[in-house]
Every structure is written in structure tokens, then in C-alpha cells.
TrEMBL record:
It comes from the Bacteria. This is HNH endonuclease. It holds the Pfam family HNH_4. Keywords: Endonuclease, Hydrolase, Nuclease. GO terms for molecular function: endonuclease activity.
Length: 328
């Protein structure tokens, strides 16, 4: 496992912007395993120190740990957001709370204004935790292509291509990282003042029910699963309507991207793309709907559909990190 590594070599020196975006997309999406907010905090620490690297594109662990500690000081001390981990209390949270209580530091105190000796002690403890749980974890998610690291030398060396990319897209990366980190903090902390606003914003485009589409599809197609072909009339097999290309990518409900599915396939497929041969199946299926002329509501639902459009969406979803192909 990546987080157990003590040394990580840089596996690729040159990456295109498209390749880097694809990796970032995976890191920030649910394709990456995240049991804590640590990975987001490290990305934020890297961005904060982009202008502090030496001529070899190196940053010290102390530089990164200082930014990392400051991030969690703000979350834990200022905002009392103590849950930063899906399991037991994150070690960084414990370090900061213990340091605050031991020194009697008020919650309104800014980290930069703390006594230097307290700062050094906190940063040192956080750095030790980062060695165990942070540097290797993000290294593994980027497949060793973003940076190299060495626990003995206590240095992290950024890939020059990644450094240039992060400089060019710094503001956008900050906003993206802040959003995903905030969404996870919301999920982990039951704080009334947060009110789960991010989740509400994200779900605006999603319909409350796909039942109307189910009725239309059952009118023109057999009651069988689009993926496995099993009949949907069995009482034990519920009828579901599935987004062929995941909703989390298309963010809309169009009949040409919706198929009838059994409970088993719908649950198993989840947020994945079906293997590419199903693309031909849905194109043929949509041609049937396109040929329906007597029903104006179908014509409206298929308005602006082209087979090239769903092929383009399929290909772009892969580029955006939906590369875990699903087979029933």
C-alpha cells in the first residue's frame, strides 16, 4: 500500500495537461479511496508552496507540514470540525486539540500568531503523522507520476510538468480541492450551521424520480434488463432506470441515456461505464426511439440527440476518470 512507503521514485517526468487533469479528476472523485481529508490537505499544502520550491523542484517536509498544520488548526480550533476521518479520530486532530488544551490557547487564536516554540512542536508531530499516512497515500493515487518523496531526506520533489500545470491552473485547483474537502467535512460532521449546503447544490440537477421514463421505455421495449437480458416481470426483480453514462458525469436525465435495468445490474454497475460494446446497443436502441413519429412527446424527449453525442460523452467520461469498465 502506498501510505506505507518510505521512499517513492518519480515514475514519469513528462505529462501532458490532459494526462494531469485526468489524474486530478480521479484523486478528487470517489474513484480515489479517501478515509480522511488528508489528501485534500496535502494538495492544498502543495499549492500554497508552489513558489517556495528550490531549483530541483523540491519542498521540505517542514514546509508542507507547516501548511498542513495551519489548515487543520483552522478546521479544528476555529470551527470545531473534529471529524476528519471516517473511522477513529484523525491523529492530526488529536495532536492539535491536545496542543491547544495543554497551552490554553483560545479558539480565536490564528496559527501564525502562536508562540514559535508551540508552532515548531505541533508541526514536528504533524510531520511524523504525514510520513505515516499522507505522503505515500497521494503518491499511490497519482501512480508515482506527480512527485517523488524520501522520508530520510524529508523532501518531496514535484514533477516539473505538474508544477507548471499547478501554477497555470492554481485558482481552479484551489476551488476544486476546497469544494471536495468541504463536501467530505460536511459528511463527517453533524453541525447544524453547515446545513449540508454542498450536497443540496450538487443534487439540484437530479430529478426526484425516473418513473416517467420507465413508463415510456416499457411502452416501446421489452421488460428486460438492458445489460443482462433477464426479464423484469419476476416479483423478486425490481425494475430500475439506469443512467447508461453515469449521472455524476452527465448531470442530467435524458431518455437517450436511460435504460431499463434489473436491481442486480443497477447496483453492480453503480457509477461505472458499461463495457464499450454496450455503446452499440444503446445507439441501436435510441434509433428505435428516433423513428417514433406518432408520439410528439418522444420526439421532444429525443430532441437534439445524435449518436455521435453519446459516443462523445462516453469517450469524455473516460478522460474524466470514469475508466473502471463494468461488465454484468
Amino acid at each position: 500500500m502506498g501510505h506505507k512507503l518510505k521512499v517513492g521514485e518519480l515514475r514519469e517526468m513528462y505529462l501532458t495537461d490532459e494526462e494531469i487533469w485526468r489524474i486530478f479528476t480521479i484523486i478528487l472523485s470517489n474513484k480515489s479511496v479517501k478515509s480522511s481529508t488528508y489528501k485534500y490537505a496535502l494538495i492544498k499544502a502543495l499549492i500554497e508552496n508552489l513558489y517556495q520550491i528550490n531549483e530541483d523542484f523540491e519542498l521540505t517536509y517542514d514546509q508542507l507540514a507547516y501548511s498542513f498544520t495551519k489548515i487543520y488548526w483552522n478546521l479544528v480550533v476555529h470551527h470545531n470540525l473534529l471529524n476528519q476521518n471516517s473511522g477513529q479520530t484523525a491523529r492530526v486532530v488529536s495532536i492539535i486539540k491536545e496542543g491547544q488544551l495543554k497551552s490554553g490557547i483560545p479558539s480565536e487564536m490564528v496559527f501564525d500568531k502562536l508562540d514559535e516554540a508551540i508552532q515548531i512542536k505541533l508541526v514536528g508531530k504533524v510531520k511524523s503523522t504525514m510520513k505515516i499516512n499522507v505522503f505515500g497515500a497521494l503518491y499511490g493515487d497519482t501512480r508515482g507520476s506527480f512527485y517523488a518523496f524520501d522520508h530520510k531526506k524529508e523532501t518531496l520533489r514535484l514533477n516539473p510538468s505538474v508544477h507548471s500545470f499547478m501554477l497555470n491552473y492554481q485558482r481552479l485547483l484551489v476551488n476544486l480541492t476546497n469544494y471536495h474537502m468541504a463536501a467530505m467535512v460536511e459528511q463527517l460532521n453533524e453541525v447544524p450551521s453547515i446545513n449540508y449546503l454542498l450536497g443540496k447544490v450538487e443534487s439540484i440537477a437530479k430529478r426526484s424520480s425516473l418513473k416517467p421514463f420507465e413508463k415510456v421505455l416499457l411502452t416501446y421495449f421489452k421488460a428486460e434488463c438492458f445489460y443482462c437480458g433477464k426479464k423484469l416481470t419476476d416479483n423478486k426483480r425490481e425494475t430500475h432506470v439506469d443512467h447508461f453514462i453515469p449521472w455524476s458525469f452527465v448531470q442530467s436525465d435524458h431518455i437517450w441515456n436511460l435504460v431499463l435495468a434489473c436491481n442486480t445490474c443497477n447496483s453492480s454497475k453503480s457509477d461505472k461505464l458499461p463495457t464499450r460494446n454496450y455503446l452499440d446497443y444503446i445507439i441501436d436502441r435510441n434509433q428505435v426511439l428516433n423513428d417514433v413519429k406518432e408520439n410528439t412527446s418522444i420526439t421532444i424527449l429525443m430532441n437534439n440527440y445524435r449518436s455521435e453525442k453519446i459516443i462523445m460523452l462516453y469517450d469524455y467520461s473516460i478522460k474524466n476518470g470514469f475508466d473502471s469498465v463494468w461488465i454484468p
